[in-house]
Automatic annotation (TrEMBL):
Cofactor: [4Fe-4S] cluster; Mo-bis(molybdopterin guanine dinucleotide)
MF-aspect GO terms: 4 iron, 4 sulfur cluster binding; metal ion binding; molybdopterin cofactor binding; oxidoreductase activity
Protein name from the UniProt record: Assimilatory nitrate reductase catalytic subunit
InterPro entries: Asp_de-COase-like_dom_sf, BFD-like_2Fe2S-bd_dom, BFD-like_2Fe2S-bd_dom_sf, CT_Nitrate-R-NapA-like, MoPterin_dinucl-bd_dom, Mopterin_OxRdtase, Mopterin_OxRdtase_4Fe-4S_dom, MopterinOxRdtase_cofactor_BS
GO cellular component: a single term: membrane
Any single biological process term in GO: nitrate assimilation
Length: 897
């Protein structure tokens, strides 16, 4: 009997926090769709979310605990860790122990990790990858509001008349929020959207104005806005007087930041800047959404405050359609903030620096070893591992060898460390080789708990697949170690519901509600007495949840009440400054970030072939002028260098990039390319206030590479490139595609037969100088390997050639056809995949547009289906429509998915 069951859960990728309906048949996840009743997505899913069922295979999963490479049972692993940690603490004190956790674990996992470290082991050396993500925004919120509160909600974007998107590529990084905004804009075309980003990104597709500002100059831009608002008297005087402090100092500090000066500082046209300022002054309903282009900066906190200042002095906060909006990246970045997962935070939005707060938590936990000072922030934490000050580090759900700045130093630090414990679901991250103890964790689809998204909505992730092998829940692993360290009672939780209740109770502990306000913003005391069943069936709800707001609260600060000692917001005067490194004649500035279909270090999205079709290999975006200056061509190989560290990828020459900077994706690891870990190049510069690294501005040099030969190799079997070769690897549905680059040796064929000893029949083509070589190898007539190579990367049809691996080729002429790289029938050529959901290629789309079969994004959707599922490719479809559509029809502006 095939019974299909639908389980309601939450997407494990970005901070939008979409509700997912998971269809289960006989214990297997067979399909996913967006939950129509979830407030974040209302039925939609982006391309990553809609490929979730393709990433849950047990292939590549870590299956059992191991110590020094030897498989052990859980009991041995727990006891080993507990004993080792106890030894280190006894000899060197609790600060010799550290945990480095992640915004991708559930609130319940996070809560027990923080409790163990800060109350029981007695060190604040627990930090999280959220340090790399939104710690600048957290610090800016606390300076301005006295608490780390996100004032608004997603609906505000739809209600606004002006949406400023700065330092965010919303279309690719928060696709469903972007689609909601695009729909609102389509329905109300008068609504204004402004994108502020040095690059012209896919998010500019719906923008009325794009300001390609000088990298890192946002502080000048928002101080310039404050100056404009003050000079033109476009202020909410009453709000300033009743609810803000520091106005005079702010006015004074922005005095020199005139429009003309700001245009120079930001290197943008004065008229464009004036338009933005006028709109902000004019539209009461304005939202400024910001993300990593603001946060990941040596002055990220100041930039956040410069943005918030503009909203406070105009009273554009706490009202429908009016708010500053720091959007979170990871699915549970917000939950991490609730439990106090950063080294300078305490649980439940209590202050680590405040002795009274510390005492509250100590009493609530009955903690024997309550901390009394802040711990080390991520970059400093790994420096302390490197210097030997930290002797044990437990890394949970993050891959720092790829994602931390100065990533080669992380390798070095971990190599020296006495005890490295890594809890991960994957069996092959770049960090795992440095672990002494490897712990297999359950992951999405297997674990139960809660996550909180960008607009404070708490949603349930539910488990519905049996974990593979011995994989165990993160909360359980932490609690078992804690119990063996002598803390049985405090960690004797029966399940995630039990932990959640304690977390909710702490949020309400000595947090009195008076006149409809709790003393602390984070208060979910209304959820303290959920039964297990109520927890199981918990519907999404926005915090706070207490007596005043039993059903949650959409907006904070609508009452002008802030969480500072005076209950007034602080206007923070900042001195804008450029990034630590500026471009000079030899150096360029390296900007890094995300692509549409990959998630971070690719341990999960790298498993879904569909998600590798949009962009399969790492690249360097470079402006045509810069390319010419350095004698670099499009799609050619280049080397980026800094401090003798090299990064190798192909170029995308494009005028969407500024002349002074380069962009590379952050995602590639040593598992997918020989030299394309962006963070090996990124310098560990931090914001002094938040400790957030400056990932967007590192100095590099660029030079073209001239390979002796290069090519593609498609194979059904395992293959390891020679150590002297450079390579990019792409898993395909029925094999693996390797791009091989030989910078040192001339081509020869011997290695090929040596690499594939089982291949019995070969066809081969080469020229008289042996500069070009194409070969195909067969086992029992079945295609096993194809190589196409030459001085340049050969052209070929990836989808077609990829689909031939494993097929039977008895006839010689068909075998030779393979070596051309293209199908005999040109109509079968599809080109690069644009729509991953329906696998529609660029060439197919261009043909349809040229033939007149479609003339708009909408008609492409009805003829080819592209763009009609998740909608993530709509910005690219629009570009193709603009470039190739038959002239007679104008381009429609409907952005709805
Ligand atoms: N597809 C996908 N989506 C994701 C993720 C993913 O890995 N893949 N990760 C999630 C996570 S954890 C996060 S934190 C978010 C991040 O989401 P975003 O912050 O939107 O992503 P990024 O691409 O890192 O950076 C955003 C933009 O900042 C711009 N920028 C660089 N320097 C400056 C500057 O000086 N000023 C301004 N104004 N802009 C600048 C970059 O050019 C880039 O386009 O994405 C989340 N969503
Ligand atoms: N150059 C550059 N670097 C960056 C950034 C940038 O913009 N530019 N952005 C930074 C930002 S914002 C972020 S958030 C980080 C992200 O960087 P990371 O956190 O390092 O990236 P992930 O690949 O998401 O790592 C998550 C790991 O957890 C594992 N995992 C998945 N589910 C579970 C689970 O339930 N339990 C356990 N124990 N493990 C699990 C996955 O297999 C994976 O190895 O990167 C940062 N680094
Ligand atoms: S926008 Fe996409 S990745 Fe983000 S939560 Fe929704 S479905 Fe998941
Ligand atoms: Mo992030």
């Amino acid at each position: 009997m095939n019974i299909t069951e639908t389980i309601k859960t939450t997407c494990p990728y970005c901070g939008v926090g979409c509700g997912v309906d998971a269809k289960i048949q006989q214990g297997n996840l067979i399909a996913v769709s967006g939950s129509t009743e979830h407030p974040a997505n209302q039925g939609r899913l982006c391309v990553k979310g809609s490929a979730l069922h393709e990433t849950v295979s047990h292939q590549g999963r870590m299956l059992s605990p191991s110590i020094a490479g030897q498989t052990v049972d859980w009991n041995t692993a727990y006891s080993h860790i507990a004993e080792k940690l106890a030894d280190i603490i006894a000899q060197h004190g609790p600060d010799a122990v550290a945990m480095y956790v992640s915004g991708q674990i559930l609130t319940e996992d996070y809560y027990v990790a923080n409790k163990l470290m800060k109350g029981f082991i007695g060190t604040s050396n627990i930090d999280t990858n959220s340090r790399l993500c939104m710690s600048s925004a957290v610090a800016a919120h606390k300076r301005a509001f006295g608490s780390d509160t996100v004032p608004g909600c997603y609906e505000d974007l739809e209600l606004a008349d002006l949406v400023i998107i700065t330092g965010s590529n919303l279309a690719w990084a928060h696709p469903i929020v972007y689609q909601r905004l695009a729909k609102a804009k389509a329905e109300r075309p008068d609504m204004k959207i402004v994108v502020i980003d040095p690059r012209k990104t896919a998010s500019c597709d719906i923008a009325d104005l794009h300001l390609p500002l000088k990298p890192g100059s946002d502080g000048f831009l928002f101080n310039g806005l404050a100056h404009y608002l003050i000079a033109h008297q476009k202020l909410d005087r009453q709000f300033i007087e009743q609810h803000c402090e520091g106005f005079d100092a702010l006015s004074e500090s922005v005095q020199q930041q005139t429009l003309a000066q700001t245009a120079i500082d930001c290197d943008v046209p004065e008229a464009a800047l004036n338009t933005l300022y006028q709109w902000f002054a004019e539209y009461e309903h304005s939202v400024t959404l910001f993300s990593q282009g603001i946060n990941q900066s040596s002055s990220g906190v100041d930039k956040g405050n410069a943005i918030i200042n503009c909203h406070l002095i105009t009273g554009k906060i706490g009202k429908p359609g009016a708010t500053p909006f720091s959007i979170t990246g990871q699915p549970n970045a917000m939950g991490g903030r609730e439990v106090g997962g950063l080294a300078n935070q305490l649980a439940a939005h209590l202050e680590l620096k405040n002795p009274e707060s510390l005492d509250k938590v100590r009493r609530f936990w009955d903690a024997p070893n309550m901390v009394h000072k802040e711990g080390l922030k991520a970059v400093d934490m790994f420096n302390a591992v490197d210097s030997g000050q930290i002797k044990a580090i437990w890394i949970i759900a993050t891959n720092p060898v790829v994602s931390m700045p100065d990533a080669d130093k992380i390798k070095q630090a971990l190599t020296k460390c006495d005890l490295v414990i890594v809890s991960d679901s994957s069996d092959s991250t770049d960090t795992l080789p440095f672990a002494d103890v490897c712990l297999p964790a359950t992951t999405w689809g297997e674990k139960d708990g809660t996550v909180t998204n960008s607009d404070r909505t708490i949603s349930r992730q539910r488990g519905f697949i049996a974990p593979p092998g011995e994989a165990q829940n993160d909360w359980k692993i932490i609690c078992e170690v804690a119990k063996r360290m002598g803390f049985e009672e405090a960690f004797d939780f029966t399940g995630s519901a039990d932990i959640f209740r304690e977390h909710a109770a702490l949020s309400g502990f000595e947090n009195p509600e008076a006149n409809g306000k709790s003393e602390r913003d984070f208060d979910i005391s209304g959820l303290t007495s959920l039964t297990d069943l109520e927890y199981q069936t918990l519907e999404p709800i926005q915090w706070p949840v207490n007596q005043t707001y039993p059903q949650g609260r959409k907006r904070f600060f609508d009452d002008g009440h802030f969480y500072t000692p005076t209950n007034k917001a602080n206007l923070i005067s900042i001195t804008p400054r450029l990034p630590t490194y500026a471009a000079d004649c030899d150096q360029l500035i390296l900007n890094t970030g995300r692509i549409r279909d990959q998630w971070h270090t690719m341990t999960r999205t790298g498993k879904a072939h569909r998600l590798l079709e949009h962009i399969a290999t790492p690249y360097v975006e470079i402006h045509p002028h810069t390319a010419e200056k350095f004698d670099i061509k499009n799609n050619s190989l280049v080397s980026l260098k800094d401090r003798n560290i090299e990064y190798i990828a192909r170029t995308k020459v494009t005028d969407t990039q500024r002349k002074d900077s380069l962009f590379v994706p952050m995602h590639w690891s040593d598992a997918f390319a020989s030299h394309a870990r962006a963070n090996s190049l990124v310098r560990p510069i931090q914001d002094a206030l938040s400790g957030q690294p400056e990932f967007k501005h590192s100095p590099v040099t660029i030079s073209p590479l001239s390979p002796h030969w290069q090519g593609i190799l498609l194979t059904a079997s395992d293959f390891t490139p020679d150590k002297t070769m450079e390579w990019f690897k792409t898993p395909l549905a029925n094999g693996t595609l390797w791009e091989l680059i030989d910078l040192n040796n001339t081509p020869d064929t011997d290695w090929l037969s040596a690499a594939f000893p089982k291949v019995s029949e070969w066809v081969q083509l080469t020229d008289s100088n042996q500069r070009y070589l194409s070969a195909a190898g067969f086992i029992d007539n079945q295609l096993h390997i194809v190589l196409l190579s030459g001085p340049e990367l050969p052209e070929y049809d990836k989808s077609w050639l990829g689909s031939q691996v494993g097929e039977r080729f008895p006839a010689d002429q068909d075998r030779l056809r393979l070596l051309s790289g293209f199908p005999a029938d040109p109509s079968m050529q599809t080109g690069k995949t644009i729509c991953s959901c329906y696998q529609v290629g660029e060439q197919t789309i261009i043909n349809a547009l040229k033939n007149g079969d479609a003339c708009s994004v909408e008609s492409l959707g009805s003829t080819l289906k592209c763009g009609s599922n998740c909608g993530s490719c709509i910005p690219e479809l629009r570009t193709l429509v603009n470039d190739h559509s038959c002239d007679s029809v104008s381009v429609e502006t409907d952005n709805a998915a």
